[in-house]
Amino acid sequence: MDSQSYRIVAISNRSSGILAEISNKLAEADCRLKSISSLRLGHSYVVVLMVEASHEKEALEKIINSVADNHELQLIISHCENKKYTFIKSDAFIRVRGEPAKGMNARIISLLTEAGLDIHGLESDTFQKNGEKVFTINVKGKATDGIESLTQLAADLQEEGLDVTVSTDWSLLI
To answer: Is the pTM of this model over 0.90?
Structure first.
């Protein structure tokens, strides 16, 4: 059988060891790991793998089942095309903080996209600071229309009472 490309998404409420266990199981089964990403999404832990394998989809499910059982994983395995990927370096980093409001994340994402940001990564969270609820959104991406349009958007959002920082340095998000 020829090699096929698969996208594997594993979601769990546990994070410890999932990435290593899935990677090891696939490597033991002679699968080539092309790309791996992991992130925390709310209270869930998400692992996304791009895999090249000479196995059928059902065989991949069996390979990962022991890990799935150990970590109560929800698995999604799908075929994908084996297209060549061109890496695009992020050159814009934005942090937005403020009082949480319904639809705020969606609004900020829409405004950033309209201002020419090709979003590569986004994290958002809500937390307590000095007894007040605060939301924060950290975004990185490619400024397709230049950093100036994002800087103008930041100024507009600051007039609405949001704390917005735009940078060309990724250390903003640390």
So the answer is: no
